[in-house]
Design goal:
The complex is a heterodimer. By secondary structure, chain A is an alpha/beta fold. Chain A has helices spanning 2-10, 15-22, 37-42, 59-64, 71-81, 98-101, 103-113, 133-154, 160-185, 193-202, 208-225, 247-254, 283-293, 304-317, 332-346, 365-379; strands at residues 27-30, 46-49, 90-93, 121-124, 235-241, 259-265, 322-328, 352-357. In chain A, the strands form two sheets. Chain A has a four-stranded parallel β-sheet with strand order 2-1-3-4. In chain A, strands 6-5-7-8 form a four-stranded parallel β-sheet, sandwiched between helices. In chain A, helix 8 (133-154) crosses helix 13 and helix 10 packs antiparallel against helix 12. Chain A is globular and about 60 Å long. The two termini of chain A are 33 Å apart. Chain B has a domain at 243-348 and 378-462. Chain B is built from 20 helices and eight strands. In chain B, helix 7 (102-112) crosses helix 9 and helix 12 packs parallel to helix 14 (270-288). In chain B, the strands form two sheets. Chain B has a four-stranded parallel β-sheet, sandwiched between helices. A four-stranded parallel β-sheet of chain B has the order 6-5-7-8. In chain B, 53% of the residues lie in helices and 7% in strands. Classes of the chains: A alpha/beta, B alpha/beta. Chains A and B meet through helix 6, helix 7, helix 8 and helix 15 of A and helix 10, strand 4, helix 11, helix 18 and helix 19 of B.
């Protein structure tokens, strides 16, 4: 069953997107976890989180972005410039961080040199950096504007009932991910970190109904096997930090069988597992509250304590032995937060390894492997 | 960090240099010549300032007073707040809080000491900043995080939504030091009504926070005094900016630094008005005589710095421009954006007004004024959005009759580095030769000033500008 997820997570234009398009339906890409996928679901559009995997050159990315910019948006721009996002009918850019929000200009301007790479629906979604009432009001208004823009552009009405159904469907997926986390925490867990991560990332790129069904089915299978395996004696690692959607990193950590990645808190990962969005009342207000107030990203400045509490809760629930803190180079937000995590986790007796790396193909595999080996020796 | 750097408090050391430097202005020319032999590095700061006469002397005294305020704050029963250059300090002064503007502190250390802020910059990385974070905050913060300065009581900044590295530095510092933190956040659009409402609501929440931290209540009359002073300053700035459009400009390059540094430190306070009045008088006299502000008296080129200036060792950057006959036409930092300023018509939604009628109008004025401070005004949204960086730069280049544009920043500036290449393409297409500097404005180790200067020379030569 995990093959479906691995297939979906391994390529940018995966087979489920192709199948969706063959049926004559629309696809919209988005760049940040603050974009409510429910809006597109309610419009019958497939929301796909944009990923930079499979990039083999940064010629186009480097031509528009400056040298001191994270390689993730550069990879996205590269793929866009190469026409590998041609399957998109639209794209939504957010100010997730400074580098990501500049993808807006760089992508639009790259369209002058590479005609046809900018989707007809190209939208800037302004997410505030605070959850106080005026921040929430702003965000709610932004969601309403996005709904209007999508409905107008694609000629698809987005109704209250449609939004409620979409929220219910997404909630089901969130609850399933929470169930997966419980299974991973068990003594006889047989879900590898790579499988779990693929199952999570797949949720950001697969049609929601198919994904939810496949996830439920897979978890039923896993549950049925419970009790058949001896307790897992491997060390249990958690991976934290900045944007990461590549299976290779998790795979590399688990490669020699000494450790299992038993939990993560990554932007593409299970951060939002179990956080249901209200299905009562106004669905737009519920989406605003759900997406903004549960914010667990350092872009929401001054909320480190809440994030630390969430990490500590996971460390306790998943019985974590050690933590790998990774960030993509030039990511100041996660980079410095990782230092705080290292300080606070180590003070609680949880060993940490901090790694700064490039996004994309593991060009620094040797260096990272060597540091991981040294770290694993330490914790053993 | 080297032991000798640890031996003295950072803020005291900085104050001592500037205070003693400011006293040198009272000496005879002979005494000054003698003194310069003993301060081979600081001379590069002191000499250009004293050479400017009253404005330069007032400027160094203003810096010294600012640092003394920081040192004496607790003795005087006041709290200290770490803040950022794009946060105008009027509100803090109204609540008896002493601002510590980190970027100014970093720049002053960088200008004053032979090894700049290197030790403090590196200490910041030791305790957790990424080495690619912005040097403008990291320098001074390094000293504060190392406990080498009078303690900060709380943190306020206004860069979320505008500059991640800036906002992140303040959030990190608050967490590391275990002190309260509040941030203003700016939407990506400046002109809409809902943005104005957001500015207002956010600013009101900020006032409640600062009142709580300072133990003071915002008094209407005190606020009115500060805004009345700001009103006076805006008038003087409008005149200075008008005169700046003349060919040749009667403003020396260094006046740009005085204009914005003074505003960041003492906006709404009489010390800044006094400095502006001195600059105003000299500029007016030069303008009346049709004289250039350059030492040579011959203006060969007008360069607009579309971002920031260069602050490593000494005031070489401004001196270098001056020596070559290049007029400094300002930067993103030196413009005020009051509604009646000469260039305001080009960017109506990017301006503010001051209304001193009652408490509400004054708070609204402060909120809208702050929302028009440098950086938060014009790089909050996509650069090619109305009223943003491109519009502003082209308007400034036109109004101030610039011959070329120069971008300078820090590698930590993700925001501008994320778009400066397409931005420069458009400024070039609009007819302005544009040079992108690759140095770090606060850290000479990234690219030495000598290399930076050579690249500038090359740009001017290749583009046939000089």
């Amino acid at each position: 069953m995990t093959n479906i997820f691995q297939e979906a997570a391994a390529t940018v234009a995966n087979p489920s997107i192709e199948a969706w398009k063959k049926a004559g339906r629309k696809v919209v890409g988005y760049t940040c976890s603050y974009v409510p996928g429910e809006i597109f679901q309610a419009a019958g559009i497939l929301p796909v989180r944009l990923r930079g995997i499979g990039t083999t050159s940064l010629q186009i990315g480097d031509a528009f972005f400056g040298p001191y910019i994270c390689s993730f948006p550069k990879c996205l721009l590269q793929l866009a410039g190469e026409g590998r996002f041609d399957f998109l009918h639209g794209a939504v850019i957010t100010p997730g961080c400074d580098s990501m929000r500049r993808l807006d200009e760089c992508w639009r301007k790259a369209g002058d040199d590479h005609p046809g790479i900018v989707p007809d629906f190209f939208y800037y979604f302004d997410v505030p950096h605070k959850t106080e009432p005026h921040g929430l009001a702003w965000f709610e208004e932004e969601i309403r504007r996005l709904i209007d823009a999508v409905a107008t552009h694609f000629g698809t009405p987005i109704t209250t009932a449609g939004l409620r159904d979409a929220i219910a469907l997404f909630n089901r997926g969130r609850r399933l991910l929470a169930r997966m986390e419980i299974l991973r925490a068990a003594d006889d867990n047989d879900i590898s970190g790579t499988e779990a991560f693929a199952a999570t990332v797949a949720g950001t790129v697969m049609p929601r109904e198919d994904y939810t069904e496949a996830l439920a089915h897979w978890l039923d299978e896993v549950e049925a096997r419970q009790g058949e395996r001896p307790p897992d004696k491997r060390k249990r690692l958690m991976v934290l930090g900045s944007i990461s959607d590549d299976m290779d990193l998790i795979q590399m950590i688990e490669a020699d069988g000494r450790v299992v990645v038993a939990a993560e808190n990554l932007c593409f990962g299970v951060r939002f597992a179990g956080h249901d969005i209200d299905t009562d009342g106004d669905p737009v207000a519920a989406l605003a509250r759900g997406y903004l107030e549960r914010s667990i990203c350092p872009r929401m400045f001054g909320q480190y304590r809440q994030r630390l509490a969430a990490v500590l809760e996971t460390v306790a629930n998943a019985r974590i032995d050690a933590v790998v803190l990774q960030n993509i180079r030039f990511c100041d937000l996660h980079g410095s937060e990782n230092s705080l995590f290292e300080r606070d986790l180590e003070a609680r007796g949880i060993p940490c390894l901090q790694i700064e790396r490039e996004y994309g193909p593991l060009v620094e595999k040797g260096r990272i492997r060597m540091r991981l080996d040294a770290f694993l020796e330490q914790i053993e | 960090m080297r032991p000798e750097v640890r031996a003295y408090p950072f803020d005291w050391m900085l104050w001592a240099a500037l205070e003693h430097g400011s006293r040198a202005a009272d000496g005879t020319p002979g005494e000054l010549r003698h003194l310069y032999r003993y301060i081979p590095y600081f001379r590069g700061v002191l000499d250009p300032l004293l050479r400017e006469g009253e404005p330069g002397i007032l400027f160094i005294k203003l810096l010294s007073r600012y640092l003394r305020n920081i040192l004496d704050a607790h003795r005087d029963g006041k709290k200290r707040a770490a803040t950022t250059f794009c946060f105008l300090p009027g509100l803090l002064y109204a609540l008896d809080v002493v601002p510590i503007t980190l970027e100014i502190m970093s720049a002053l250390g960088g200008l004053t000491w032979k090894r700049g802020m290197y030790d403090y910059l590196d200490y910041g990385c030791e305790v957790g900043f990424t080495e690619t974070s912005c040097s403008s905050q990291r320098g001074a913060l390094g000293a504060y995080l190392a406990g080498l300065a009078e303690p900060i009581d709380f943190v306020v900044c206004d860069s979320p939504g505008v500059c991640d590295t800036n906002a992140n530095a303040f959030a990190f510092a608050a967490e590391y030091l275990g002190i309260p933190f509040y941030h203003l956040n700016y939407p990506q659009v400046i002109g809409e009504d809902r943005s104005q409402t957001y500015h207002r609501e956010d600013y009101k929440a900020l006032i409640a926070f600062v009142e709580e931290q300072s133990g003071r209540t915002l008094e209407e009359e005190r606020l009115r005094e500060i805004l009345a002073e700001a009103e006076k300053q805006d008038g003087l700035l409008a005149d200075l900016e008008d005169m700046h459009t003349l060919v040749p400009t009667p403003l020396p390059p260094i006046y740009n630094l005085f204009i914005y540094a003074g505003r960041f430190l003492f906006s709404g306070m009489p010390a800044y008005t006094e400095l502006l009045e001195a600059m105003h008088a000299r500029t007016r006299a030069r303008a009346a005589a049709g004289k250039s502000g350059l030492r040579s008296g011959r203006e060969k080129l007008r360069a607009f710095m579309c971002y920031i200036d260069h602050y490593t060792l000494n005031l070489r950057f401004w001196d270098w421009l001056d020596e070559r006959g290049i007029a400094h036409m300002g930067s993103i930092l030196s413009r005020t954006f009051r509604d009646y300023h000469g260039y305001a018509g080009a960017l109506p939604e990017a301006t503010y007004t001051l209304d001193l009628a009652d408490r509400d109008t004054m708070i609204d004025s402060l909120a809208q004024m702050n929302a028009r401070s440098p950086m938060v005004r014009s790089i909050r949204g996509p650069y090619d959005q109305p009223n943003m960086w491109l519009d502003e730069t082209l308007a400034m280049a036109r109004v101030f009759r610039a011959d070329c544009l120069i971008y300078n920043g820090t590698p930590g500036c993700r925001n501008t580095w994320g778009m400066v290449k397409p931005f420069a393409r458009e400024t070039e297409a609009s007819g302005y030769p544009t040079h992108i500097m690759n140095d770090d404005a606060f850290d000479d180790r990234v690219e030495s000033w000598e290399a930076t200067a050579e690249r500038l020379e090359e740009f001017f030569a290749v583009r046939g500008l000089l």
